[in-house]
Amino acid sequence: MRSQIEIGTDSAGQSISMDVQELLATRLLVQGNSGSGKSHLLRRLLEQSAELVQQVVVDPEGDFTSLADQFDHVLIDGSAYSAREIAALAGRVRQHRVSVVLSLEELEVEQQIRCAALFLAALFDAPREHWYPALVVVDEAQMFAPAAAGELGEDTRRLTLSAMTNLMCRGRKRGLAGIVATQRLAKLAKNVAAEASNFLMGRTFLDIDMQRAADLLGMDRKEAERIRDLQRGHFLGLGPAISRRPVAVHIGNVRTGGKNAAEGLMPLPVANGDDLEALLHDELEQEATQPAPRPVAPVRPRVDVEQEISSRVAGIARAEEPAVDAEPGPATDVAQGNDRVAQVVRELAAEEGATFQSSAMLFREFAQRCRQHGVPSAHVDMMRFRKLFACASAGLDRLDPPVREAIEQLADNVPEDVLAPYLTIAVAAAQGRTAPDEDELARVYGTSSPSRILRLLDYLERQGHIVVREEFGGERSISVLSLDDAISRNDSIALARGD
């Protein structure tokens, strides 16, 4: 898999690349005055690496929301959720490996900082099994990691500094690679800036900022004057992911655009002085006596994030599914569609090593195969897929319908992460076979650790799903509670229906 992306060209027109794999381990700091092209640089980096790695963008000005139009980024409006919901969303982002843009433009400054801090902290605190690689881009980082307290409340400052410090100092072991962009290095907390090993320095004029940038780039004071003369969109780059020596980079073009106000010259309105004066003063006294209108935030529909995440992970929009007739087809068409989906899942589960892959990777592969074979799969979300995959791994489809339905009813109360080994035990019991050995349970559970299987059996027994009996000779027998009663009940129902 390629890891090099092109970010621009040097002074000779030669391509300058960035190693995303190395960037994940070494982080990036971007600095430049307002108008130097920082947002353009970040947008170029995000666009070029969108298909290589998960991306999380903290966007205080709403400049990066257009990424959702061209790529598989989910837009999260920070003003539409509570603190607990923001933290829960961050957990799902890590679990499902979805690229997102956290837009904070509708919030006040202190609310922006608290919302971003809670989101970053939840990304950092995700369970170990969700430590997938991700680029975390924080624009205007001096807001979220200020060098001085300023007007921020002390609790807010501690919260945001802790989140940013964890991201840059300890995030690497959790798969999080921080990319921070700031207008002034002097305004950014030193312990946040010091953890970056890659630098892209744009135009700056203040001596203190030029000197700090030159120190980071390994340049002397005379060479630091180059930083003042940089044109817009030109940066000096250094670091293991870019170059071992300082290199001038002209950032390449981008596909998406920001929401900046119009720049450059515009023709003034054509009118004489009297008309313009009338525009300013007409009914001014009447307007001044009216109460000032209260700003009303635009109402944005809250999306079903779980459903949105599932569709993004699959890489398929519902519009990409094969066209169906406007009128509903017979029930047999629905059954045939479900059978085709089940066949794709069975083929995937039968492949060697499939159970050792993450659910996100399996779900992506499932969606791609459905698209290749023309099988509609938009109705199958991540939770539904996990259950289908567990049933296929355990061989539940080999049982008669009444027995299969009985086991499915018992499995409704079994946690999803241990569903496959439980179903494997239940299928063996229903077929009258001996209990599966540790190797078989390890295969469907996706582990190579015998101790995890012992803990698994102990957990299922404590939850009241099975009974394990260890004999003196070393043999083990496992009984599935209520299985016989459930099978008998379903057999009676089937006979009454005439099945």
Can you describe what's shown?
By secondary structure, this protein is an alpha/beta fold. It is built from 21 helices and 13 strands. The chain folds into three domains: 4-257, P-loop containing nucleotide triphosphate hydrolases (Rossmann fold); 304-321 and 331-394, no CATH class; 398-499, Winged helix-like DNA-binding domain superfamily/Winged helix DNA-binding domain (Arc Repressor Mutant, subunit A, Orthogonal Bundle). It has an eleven-stranded mixed sheet with strand order 2-1-11-10-9-3-8-7-4-6-5. It has a two-stranded antiparallel sheet with strand order 12-13. The longest helix is centred in the last third of the chain and has 20 residues, at 331-350. The relative contact order is 0.09.
Number of strands: 13
CATH architecture level-2 label of the largest domain: 3-Layer(aba) Sandwich
Q: What characteristic shape results from the CA principal axes?
A: elongated
The radius of gyration computed from the alpha-carbon positions, rounded to a whole number of angstroms, is 29 Å
Count helical runs.
21
Give the tally of structural domains: 3
- State the CATH class of the largest domain: Alpha Beta
Biggest β-sheet description: 11 strands, mixed
Distance between the first and last residues' Cα: 52 Å
User: How large a portion of the residues is in β-strands, by DSSP E?
Assistant: 5-15%
Ranges where pLDDT stays below 50 over 5 or more residues in a row are 295-303, 316-329
Quote the average pLDDT. Answer: 81
**Sequence of strands across the biggest β-sheet:** 2-1-11-10-9-3-8-7-4-6-5
Tell me the structural class: alpha/beta
Write down the CATH topology of the largest domain: Rossmann fold
Q: What percent of residues adopt helix (DSSP H or I)? A: 40-55%
